[in-house]
Amino acid sequence: MSSLEIHTLLKRPTVWILLALFLGSVATMTVPMETDLLGRVMNPAKKLAVPWRTFEAAEVSSGVTIPAHSHVIFHLPLNIKRITRKVLLGRDGDKIKYWGYCFPEDYDPKNPVHTAGFPGKLFLSEAERARREAERLSKFPKYSIYRPPTAKELRAIESGSNSMIRHQVEIFYGGMTCYIMTDQPLPLGTDTDNDFLNSYLEGDRRTDPFNADTDGDGVPDGTEVQAGFDPLRRDSDNDGLIDGIEDKNRNGRIDKGESDPRKRDSDADGLCDGYCRIIKGGRICSEFTTTKDCIPGIKVQWRGEDKNLNGLVDESETSPISPDTDGDGITDEQEYFNCLLAKKTDC
Questions:
Q1: Helix (H, G, I), strand (E, B), or coil: what is residue 71?
Q2: Cβ-based neighbour number of residue 30 at 10 Å
Q3: Is 57 helix (H, G, I), strand (E, B) or coil?
Q4: Which of 159, 182, 179 has the alpha carbon at shortest distance from 169?
Q5: Which one of 19, 156, 234, 269 has the fewest beta carbons within 10 angstroms of its own beta carbon?
Q6: Alpha carbon distance 176, 6 (integer Å)
Q7: For residues 77 and 192, is the Cβ–Cβ distance under 8 A?
Q8: What is the pTM of this model?
Q9: DSSP 3-state assignment of 198?
Q10: How far apart are CA 310 and CA 257, in angstroms?
Q11: C-alpha dihedral, 54 to 56 to 60 to 62, nearest 10°
Q12: 91: left (phi over 0), alpha (psi -120 to 50) or beta
């Protein structure tokens, strides 16, 4: 059966009833259906009141929010070649507990399976997997080389209720139909420009969903958001160096040899990483429409470590990732002031 046929069948009331009956039969296996946010057991009447929601392919394309504590079915647009779970669901799986499964291509809602388990492959967030593992381990004593598990205990561990709950799906494809439940709202969307930021988050961050690098700094929008950079500014920390120069390999991490695009002064030596304008004592009148609280003719200083903003430590420059570039025991900032006192022209 094709995904289009599954999509059509899921619109029929009788199919929803069959699906509801199936989910009810496995509800005891899932914490979101059994407890509230505080972990309190929900009574049967409250479980039956859990709402249902369906998101069509067009809604997923534009980006939607999956509500918490709801049965949610979503259809992925056919034009999706592939998308990772983390991007599809907003990259918050390490903090938000959610679980779900995707129906197989040949699944027939009119004749659901009668065996134990789910009618498709499972996916669980990192937080949900960690919770289930902690719960599983809490049921058994702590083992060590001095107290190994017995054969009976090993069989009990392997046959435990959590043994059938395993993460199986990490890559999603166009045309898939999936079920999900989450304990917090989740941003669901596609990734047209392959920048690791889904369509919901693109709208939320006001980035361009058809441009992988909205601000043109060399770092993909999704990587910037994940790392805490500003995807709308080429120079997030306003130190004169664009983010793609500071994060040389554009991976969103501060690796060896890189300055921090989130900090004007990565090595905290008093000099900004690039080349910054320093104004002391007030505001420049020429830059404001009113002259209130400004100082006429105030002098502006320019100083920093990478004066030509090329990401290299050239002659007469200091390193933005070392507070004492030459290792002589004098900080780079003090070296700068010593240069001024010596009345040199290239400080």
A1: strand
A2: 16
A3: helix
A4: 179
A5: 156
A6: 9
A7: no
A8: 0.73
A9: coil
A10: 14
A11: -120
A12: left
User: Hey, how many other C-beta atoms are within 10 angstroms of the C-beta on 68?
Assistant: 16
Amino acid at 10: L
Query: How do the pLDDT tens digits run along the chain, 347 residues long?
Result: 455 455 455 444 444 434 444 444 343 333 344 444 334 444 545 555 789 999 999 999 999 999 999 999 999 999 999 999 999 999 899 999 999 999 987 666 666 554 455 678 899 999 999 988 887 777 766 767 677 777 777 766 665 544 556 889 999 999 999 999 999 999 999 999 999 999 999 999 999 999 999 999 999 999 999 999 999 999 999 999 999 999 999 999 999 999 999 999 999 999 999 999 887 656 666 666 665 666 666 667 889 999 999 999 998 899 999 999 999 999 999 999 998 898 888 88
Cα separation of 36 and 50, whole Å? 11
What letter does residue 35 receive in the DSSP assignment? B
Report d(CA 227, CA 262) in Å as an integer. 9
* Domain ranges within the chain, ordered by starting residue: 3-188
Q: Which two tokens stand for residue 128?
A: 């949900």
**Residue 303: which of 254, 335, 338, 336 has the closest Cα?**
336
How many other β-carbons are positioned within 10 Å of the β-carbon of residue 123? 24
Helix (H, G, I), strand (E, B) or coil at 347: coil
CB 117 within 8 Å of CB 164: yes
Contact 55, 72 (CB under 8 A): yes
Give, as one character, the DSSP assignment of residue 4: H
**DSSP labels, 110-154:** TS---SSS-SSEEEE-HHHHHHHHHHHHHTS----SSSPPPHHHH
CB 260 within 8 A of CB 252: no
Whether the Cβ atoms of residue 309 and residue 245 lie closer than 8 Å to each other:
yes
What whole-number distance in Å separates Cα of residue 287 and Cα of residue 279?
A: 12
